[in-house]
Amino acid sequence: NAGVMQNPRHLVRRRGQEARLRCSPMKGHSHVYWYRQLPEEGLKFMVYLQKENIIDESGMPKERFSAEFPKEGPSILRIQQVVRGDSAAYFCASSPQPGTSGRAGEQFFGPGTRLTVL
Amino acid sequence: DAKTTQPTSMDCAEGRAANLPCNHSTISGNEYVYWYRQIHSQGPQYIIHGLKNNETNEMASLIITEDRKSSTLILPHATLRDTAVYYCIVRSNYGQNFVFGPGTRLSVLP
Q1: Least buried of A22, A24, B39, B75, by fewest C-beta within 10 Å?
Q2: In this predicted model, what pLDDT tens digit does every residue of A14-41 receive, in sequence order?
Q3: pLDDT, tens digit (0-9, with 9 covering 90-100), for B37-71
Q4: Contact flag B95-A48 (C-beta cutoff 8 Å)
């Protein structure tokens, strides 16, 4: 059973370009979470999605950032008109339907996408 | 979610037990204690979690005090590969995001 997959692993963009980060959850998982980690800082929650629904986007910047988790395909975190302050590691995590796992509540993290804005 | 307090950093000799403390004095009755670690900017890795009773798995043991206001993660025989930032998080069990604090940076020394 493959773990959470993220691609690309490294992404370089110039200021003003768009960045698209993809996350494929573990098989059978219907919940996806995105976190951002700035250099030398801890992980900060951004958004929580279920298939076709945004459940909690309280950690998402109000402008330029959006996320989706369509019925088919990976979850996408989209950053428009990137700025240097967007340079960070972006981690995706997935979990099964709450209450269905022996380790209920656990989130499985991907390897992250490291975004560098020049 | 309840806030946790952990030491900023700790050292441990290779082969010895590493005991990482965590205070969570405002934990509520339905909140679990989770431990994750992050090795050198990789994705966080689940270690263990518990509610009231002590827990043990292949990676570690979790000791939770009777009043649940603090806990200790024990790595019984630390290796160099256990060098990482360890995060103690309290959270109820359904669907919410994890709130990561700064964690404890554990350095296992040869």
Answers
A1: B39
A2: 999 999 999 999 998 889 999 999 988 8
A3: 999 879 999 999 999 989 999 999 999 999 999 99
A4: yes
Contact at CB, B43 and A112, closer than 8 angstroms: yes
How much is the mean pLDDT over chain B? 92
| Token output for B34 | 């989770």
A4 contacts A23 by C-beta, under 8 angstroms:
yes
Residues of chain B found within 8 Å of residue A108, distances taken between Cβ atoms: 46
What pLDDT does A42 receive? 86
The length of chain B in residues reads 110
DSSP string of B54-100, one letter each residue: -EE-SS-EEEE-TTSSEEEEEETT--GGG-EEEEEEEEESSSPPP--
Cα–Cα distance between B76 and B85 in angstroms, integer? 17
Task: Write down the pLDDT at residue B35.
Answer: 95
